[in-house]
Amino acid sequence: METNLPLAKKLNIAAWIVTAVVLLLVGMMRRVKISLPEGWDFSFLPPFHASVNALTAVVLVLAFYFIKQKNIAAHRKAIYVAMGLSVLFLLSYVAYHFTSPEIKFGDANLDGLVDAAEAAAVGGSRTFYLILLITHITLAGLILPFILFTFIRAYTGQIERHRKMAKWVFPLWLYVAITGPICYYMLMPYYP
Known about the structure:
- By secondary structure, the protein is an all-alpha fold.
- The chain has a single domain, classed as Four Helix Bundle (Hemerythrin (Met), subunit A).
- The chain is built from six helices and no strands.
- The chain has helices spanning 5-28, 45-68, 72-99, 116-122, 124-155, 159-187.
- Helix 5 (124-155) runs antiparallel to helix 6.
- The longest helix is centred in the last third of the chain and has 32 residues, at 124-155.
- It is elongated.
- 18% of the residues are buried.
């Protein structure tokens, strides 16, 4: 594949714009709530998000397997699927959080607060959950532009640069894809 640096430069700019928009939306979604029309309910989305994240993790492992087998065509297809799943996840995740109240780990009475008794009831598992959630969210935000840049490097024929980035982007993306479903599983008892 021939290197296309002018296209890479345009795509890099687009990647920064997409990253800024995504981070802005994620930052706003807990503060801004949009009312849904009567009869609409997005409560089905959290298990959907967890499923899409888990599927993304499986596809990423397959992409890794394919590239180790030097099956570039299958690797490319798997990465396209992983990118598509990530976009699907992001759109539904943002839609859910703009329209639904935040669920808190340990909030057994679903009043939106974790009081001392509720915190005591879940003990150290709340700390573990919060560490997992914070690392998941932080890495998801930090890794987004680098996922895009790694993809752009391959798409524009900068294969060596793609390989160098993929060596550290892949495990972080995989961590985010795996910890998302774990966070959901831990939070599941607190959904109404």
